[in-house]
Automatic annotation (TrEMBL):
GO terms for molecular function: ATP binding; serine-tRNA ligase activity. Pfam families: Seryl_tRNA_N, tRNA-synt_2b. The keyword rRNA-binding does not apply. It is an enzyme of class 6 (ligase). This is Serine--tRNA ligase. Transmembrane segments: none annotated. Pathway: Aminoacyl-tRNA biosynthesis; selenocysteinyl-tRNA(Sec) biosynthesis; L-seryl-tRNA(Sec) from L-serine and tRNA(Sec): step 1/1. It comes from the Bacteria. L-serine binds at T233, R264, E287, N384. GO terms for cellular component: cytoplasm. It comes from Salinimicrobium marinum.
RNA sequence: GGAGAAAUGGCAGAGUGGUCGAAUGCGGCAGUCUUGAAAACUGUUGAGGGUCACACCUCCGGGGGUUCGAAUCCCUCUUUCUCCGCCA
């Protein structure tokens, strides 16, 4: 959520920047500023009314103390009008504030200067590429065939127990996934991130805090009996730890990492590209979350990108980094880098990580601020990124490491798996 | 799940209808003293909105109500604690 004061101060520059998202902000900005104007004048009027009735109440109190009951009762009658007035005004204030917030919820974050203009994912800009795409032997298979051949992931069994998109990992498949999670967490904690285990269900307030609610309600599983939501990413519980917090400057930067399963309804997204592990309703992910001072947040973003690079180098997977264009950029993000690993057998790139700087966009909604030594209070910057999302990394490993003799295990994982080949 | 108690500033803890945004203690900050530190003493110290700055408004777990006036009374929700039941 943008800050109204910033919209007022940078209206033209913001309108220009939002064009990169193909978002025409001129109209909604005018409405926002007008509503804010109304809100403030209504507030002022209400304050005056309340001040008046506070003053009278005190007077009445004094009169009763002095035994001037008649005088007091006379004055009481005067307050009736003030009461009505303040009731009307506070209703108007609520309506205006609600309308204002609703408008603000509909305005996406201002893209960073680095964000290229563009409409679809085809306009994303490749900024880095590394790793060799292996030449596979004749008869190499996509991961869902490999999963069946070596009996390590059972999609049908998941269908039976729950439904499509809930695979069952088995034997060395299960072990490999657990190895990856441990390895990612070790790697992240070694880089200074503190490990967390978070609740997998969150309340409504948390959903609003990170912006899943109210708009993307349909993407989360909703436990209606208790009004809780299954998390679509660890970002939700982790970031919400800091909701309504005033951090002291010296705890920054905050760096968290956590493994959680993620649950996504993915309503309506079915088709050729969702086979196997490509898109699931439940999957595992290790997430990074950082809270930074504004002046450090872009250096921190680069640091997170390096962290993910480091992991992919360790795993010796061919990958590329894309800078998302305005059209593909997430609603809340100012700048996002997507990591894609090459799926050899499918001959396509698979997104495995998304690293973003939200600047103050999330912090404003969360009321996440910090106090500097001089007592100055301001919104912090929040960032997050996947390090990494499991299923597609698994798919990449299965496909890229396949040999006629079986699937080799990346060297760094062997201490975690205890075996070096799936055969 | 049942029965009871509670929720107040960074923390502890008073306050049961009228100068209470809130005593007191601890902590924090500033000063006195000291070569320096500690101790002691003195002062200061919640948040949000608003204003050039004041004024002023809001906030005592959340929401609603009674009243001229609510931290204080009523309703409701949430959370915590104690006892009972159940349980990995």
């Amino acid at each position: 959520m943008l800050q109204v004061a910033n919209i007022r101060a940078n209206k033209e520059a913001y309108i220009e920047a939002l064009k990169k998202r193909n978002f025409d902000a001129a109209g909604i900005f005018s409405e926002v500023l007008e509503l804010d104007e109304t809100r403030r004048s209504t507030q002022a009027e209400l304050d005056d009314t309340l001040a008046e009735s506070n003053r009278i109440s005190k007077e009445i109190g004094l009169m009763f103390k002095n035994g001037e009951h008649q005088k007091a009762n006379l004055l009481k009658e005067k307050t009736a009008g003030l009461k009505d007035k303040s009731k009307t005004l506070s209703e108007k204030l609520n309506e205006t504030s609600e309308a204002l917030t609703k408008h603000l919820y509909n305005i996406p974050n201002i893209p960073n200067d680095l964000v290229p203009a563009g409409v679809t994912e085809d306009d994303n800009v490749e900024v880095f590429k590394e790793g060799e795409i292996p030449v596979l032997a004749e008869g190499s298979l996509p991961h869902w065939e490999l999963a069946k051949k070596y009996d390590i992931i059972d999609f049908e069994l998941g269908n039976k127990i729950t439904g499509a998109g809930f695979p069952v990992y088995k034997g060395k498949g299960a072990r490999l996934q657990r190895a990856l999670i441990s390895y990612f967490l070790d790697k992240n904690t070694a880089a200074g991130y503190t490990e967390y285990q978070m609740p997998l269900l969150v309340n409504e307030a948390s959903g609003y805090g990170t912006g899943q609610l109210p708009d993307k309600e349909g993407q989360m599983y909703h436990v209606t009996e208790d009004n809780l939501y299954l998390i679509p990413t660890a970002e939700v519980p982790v970031t919400n730890m800091f909701r309504d917090e005033m951090l002291s400057e010296d705890v920054l930067p905050v760096a968290c990492t956590g493994y959680t399963p993620c649950f996504r309804r993915e309503a309506g997204s079915y088709g050729a590209h969702v086979r196997g592990l490509n898109r699931l309703h439940q999957f595992d992910k290790v997430e990074l979350v950082r809270i930074e001072k504004p002046e450090n947040s872009y250096a921190a973003l680069d640091g997170m990108v390096e962290q993910v690079k480091d992991i992919l180098r360790d795993l010796k997977l061919p990958y590329r980094i894309l800078r998302l264009c305005g059209g593909d950029l997430g609603f809340t993000s100012a700048l996002t880098y997507d990591f894609e690993v090459f799926s050899t057998a499918q001959d396509r790139w698979l997104e495995i990580s998304s690293v973003s700087n939200f600047e103050t966009f999330q912090a404003n909604r969360l009321k996440l601020r910090y106090k500097s030594a001089d007592g100055n209070k301001q919104l912090a910057h929040t960032l997050n990124g996947s390090a990494l999302a499991l299923p597609r990394v698994l798919a990449g490993i299965l496909e890229n490491y396949q040999t006629p003799a079986g699937i080799k295990i990346p060297e760094v994982l062997v201490p975690y798996t205890g075996f070096d080949m799936i055969d």
